[in-house]
Amino acid sequence: MDETDFQRLLGFFSRVQIDPEQVSQFRKLWTVRTFERSELITEAGQTERYFYFVLEGVQAIYILNQRGEKVVLGFSYSGSPSGVFDSFIAQQPSSTFLEALKPSRLLAIRLPDYESLFELFPDFYAWGYHFFKDILFGRLFREVELLTLSAEERYITFMRRCPDELKVIPQKYLASYLNMKPETFSRLRASARY
To answer: CATH fold of 3-120, please?
Structure first.
């Protein structure tokens, strides 16, 4: 990984104090992995082997419903973490798919190396606490939005807070994430102000 990518990774872990003599050790734990558009990164039934930091691209995590349709649970994009976190931590087969929606370049760390971060860097415990708390609260807020907001309100709320790179992914993924039909999403995209 080049220096720019490494600095972005360090920025993601800004809560973790990494002493100058530990920087090269931390850097060696990460590898670059690339995926083509529509390539599965993790397949349901497989155990997630990596925790990812996204350098480029957009990924969707989804399940398949009874009709075999993708039901999108979330996205990852440049500067965010990615992976199937529950499968990664528990080392159990995943119930979800992780797919590259755009060509993607990710920094990856294996579980033993990820776990070593807790031993190497005392601040990593606080980072982990905040990271998983943010994920939990994000999921709770999403459930509340799905249960209480109208389709238009869900669309406007999402579009106001999502990064620009998500706004240009295929609308069928965004519609699924917002729990609406693609036609409804298309209509809202044409008429809603946000």
So the answer is: Jelly Rolls (2.60.120)
